[in-house]
Amino acid sequence: MIVSPLHEKELIKKAQEGNSKAFEKLIKNYDRRILDMLLNILKNEADAADAYQNTFIKVYKSLGSFKGNSSFYTWLYRIALNTAYTHYSKRQKVEGVFVDDFKDDIIGDENASEDIFGKIDKREVVRREIEMLSIQQKSVVYMKSYEGKKFREIAEILSLNEGTVKKYFHRAVQKIKKSLDNKISNN
Amino acid sequence: MKDIKEKIFDLIYDEIEDQKERESILEIIEKDEELKKFYKAMKEESESIDSSDFNNSSDSFLESNRAELFNEIEQPSTSENKTNIVKGVFNSKQKNQFGIILKYAAVVLLTFYATMYHFNDKIIQSSNSNYDNLANNYSDNPNIQQVNYIEGSPFAETDRQLENYRVDNLSIDENGEDLQIDFDISTSKTIKGKKNDPAIIKTLKYLIAHESNPGVKLRTLKAMGRSGTNKYEESLISTMLNDQDELIRRRAMKMIAKSNISKKVIDALYNVVLNDPDQINRIEALNILEEKDATFADKALTNMPNEDNEYLKYKTTLINK
C-alpha cells in the first residue's frame, strides 16, 4: 500500500487530531522499511521488535510536534534510528563484557569465512566486517548500499553534513575492501 | 584534482543524476592516467560492498509487531491498569517474569489470530506425510522433491495461472542456499526451496519476465546471481535487452558480466552498446565488452558513425587513430 503525498498530509492531520485508524494507515505505509532497518542494525529480532515498539510509541506521542519541516518519512526514520542507537548503547552497557568477548571470537575465528574447500566466501567476509562497524557506520552503509539513499538524504536523517556522511561511508567501504583483500591474499 | 576526485566518488556511488555531467567526468578520467587509477581503485572498493547482504523482516514478524503496537495504542488505559495490578501483587522479579509471559502470550495469540485471518487455506506442513503427498501430486517431475512446499504450489501450475499472483516478498536466506517467495498474502501461496531447484528456477525466470514490481525484480536478479548457474543466461539476456526499466537492464547486464561470458552474451552486449536508449547502459556495456572481448568493443565503436554521446564519440576517435 503506497500512500500519495496528498493523502499522507491528510492522514498526518487526522492522526494528529487523535484518529488512531489514520495513524495505523500512516504507519503501515512505512513500518516494513523501518523494521527491516532495525533488524539489520540491531541484528536480532528481539531487539528489533523492542525498538519497533519504542519508535512508534514515540511517534504516536510526539506526532503533534511534527511540523512538516522535513518529510514525514525522514522524521520517522530519524526517530527510529535514534531509538536503535539508544537501544544498542544500553545493551552494550549491560552486556559489554559479553559483546567484547563475542567480537574477539569473531576476529579470532580466521576460517569462519571459508567454505569447506577453503575458498573465500566474499559475502561472509563482508557480512562479518559490517557486523564489526560502529552502529553509525553500519547505518550509513545500510542506507546507502541497501536502501539506495542519496548521501544528502542520509545526512538529513542523521543531522550531519553530507561530507561527514561520505567520510563515514568511505571509511567503512575501505575497511571492508581491506579485509577482503587480506583474506584473499592469505588464502 | 581534489574536486574531480570527489566527483568520481559521487559518480561511482550514483550521486550524479545528470547524464551530461556523468559523461564529462568519464571523459576527464579517460584522459588522465592518475585519475584512471583512482577511478579503478574506487570502483573496486565499491564492488566490495556489492557483496553485502541484508535481511528482510518476514510478514509474520511484521504482523505480530503491528498487532502489539496497535493494541497498545488503542488500549493504553487497560495496559496501564494491568501494570498497576501487577505492581500491587508481585515483587519486581516475579513482575518481570509475569510481564514477559504476558507479552509472549499476547504475541502468540495475536500472531495466531493474524495467521488464521490471512490464511484460510489449509496449511501444508513440511512433515514427511504431507511431503509424500506433494511428491505424489507432482511425481511427473522427480526434482520437485527438493522443494519444501509450505502452502500451495503456484509454480507447479501453468504460467498462465502464475500470472494471477502478485509477489509480496522474495527473501534469500543468509547463506544464500534457500529462497522463499511469498505471493499475495490473500492467496496463501508461499514457496520455499533450494536455489537451484528446477521449480525455483522456473519461478525466478517467470518473475524476471513478468513481474511489475521493480523491487521484486531486483531481488529476483540478486537471487539469480546467487545461484552460480548458467541456467538464467537466456532470461538475463532478454532482461538486459528488453526490460522497460533501465536500472533493471543495467543490473541484469552487470549480473551476466560476472559469469562465464558466451558468444550470445557478447552479441547482446554489442547490441546494448549500439541500441540501448539509456546512455549509462551503453557505456557500461562497452566497458564490459572492452574487458571481455575487445574486438567486439572496437567493432561496436566503428559502427557508430553518427554518435551523439560525447564519451562514445571520444572513444570512437581513439579507435580511428
Structure, described:
The complex is a heterodimer of chains A (187) and B (321). Helix content of chain A is 78%, strand content 0%. By secondary structure, chain A is mostly helical. With 321 residues, chain B is an alpha+beta fold. Helix content of chain B is 65%, strand content 7%. In chain B, strands 1-4-3-2 form a four-stranded antiparallel sheet, with helices on one face. Chain B is globular. Chain A binds chain B through residues 20, 23-24, 27-28, 31-32, 35-36, 39-40, 45, 48-49, 52-53, 56-57, 60, 122-123, 125-127, 130, 141-142, 144-146, 148, 150-151, 166, 169-170, 173-174, 176-177, 180, and chain B through 9, 13-15, 44-46, 48-57, 61-62, 64-66, 68-70, 72-74, 174, 176.
Quick recap:
The complex is a heterodimer of chains A (about 190) and B (about 325). With about 190 residues, chain A is an all-alpha fold.
